Amino acid sequence: ESAPLYDLLIKHQSGELPCKIPCIISNHEHLKEISEQFNIPFFYLPVAPERKDEQEKEIREIVEKEKIDLLVLARYMQILSSAFVTEYQGRIINIHHGFLPAFKGNNPYRKAWERGVKMIGATAHYVTADLDEGPIIEQDVVSVNHQHSVKEMVQAGRDIERRVLTSAVKAHLEHRIILDGRRTIIFHS
Questions:
Q1: How far is CA 37 from CA 9, 32, 46, 56, 90, in A?
Q2: DSSP 3-state helix, strand, coil percentages of the chain (rounded to 5)?
Q3: 3-186, superfamily in CATH?
Q4: What is the mean pLDDT of the chain?
Q5: C-alpha–C-alpha distance, residues 100 and 136, integer Å
Q6: Distance in angstroms (rounded) separating the CA atoms of residues 10 and 38
Q7: Model confidence over 6-27: pLDDT tens digits?
Q8: What is the DSSP string of 18-73?
Q9: Helices (H) and strands (E) in the chain — how many of each?
Q10: Average pLDDT over residues 150-165
């Protein structure tokens, strides 16, 4: 589950991502080990329906204190409020483990398997108030067939997710993206 985050941290450590990563904010406590491995401060903010507003307030406080320009949802798997998304519009990138606009929301690999698709993929996009509807930054696919199980599709998809998210974040950091309504224009380096 932490492969996209781990890949971003490795690429940052090697100098391939031109940025500072001031902290990791997560609703997954086990990611603290990764943050310690890379010597990056970790904030564990569990999510429960009754404290969602409080959690987003805590995120805002950290973002302001750390002067964070970009939020990357590396398998965050929670829906942010419309107010939060609007406040940081064009500054939140999500990785969706599916080839959007198909198979939005949870369990896209299972949905793909049930439909018998011949390709699965991953999509990095800017977050908007509408679930998995934001402007697409990067996508990639891999071929599959009837012999692949859902578990095998998930495994194949993880590598794609890492590549796609890292590529999208790098394009954003290098100012190679123009937002044009629901679309993006990407200048390749």
A1: 10, 9, 21, 26, 30
A2: 40, 20, 40
A3: Formyl transferase, N-terminal domain (3.40.50.170)
A4: 93
A5: 8
A6: 9
A7: 999 999 999 999 999 999 999 9
A8: -S----EEES-GGGHHHHHHTT--EEE----GGGHHHHHHHHHHHHHHHT---EEE
A9: 6, 8
A10: 92
Catalytic residue among 132, 140, 159, 180: 132
Please give the Cα distance from 26 to 122 (Å, whole number).
21
DSSP state, residue 117: -
Question: Measured between alpha carbons, how far is 60 from 47 in angstroms, rounded to an integer?
Answer: 15
pLDDT recorded at residue 80: 92
Q: Tokens 């998304």: give the residue.
A: 85
Instruction: Identify the H or E element spanning 142.
Output: strand 136-143
Residue 132: active-site member: yes
Confidence of residue 110 (pLDDT cuts 50, 70, 90): very high
Q: What pLDDT does 1 receive?
A: 60
CA distances from residue 26 to 116, 145, 147, 179, 189 in whole angstroms, order as listed: 34, 35, 35, 27, 31
Does residue 43 register a pLDDT over 90? yes
Going by C-alpha positions, the residue among 56, 39, 38 that lies closest to residue 47 is 56
Instruction: Give domain limits for the chain.
Output: 3-186
CA distance 143 to 76: 26
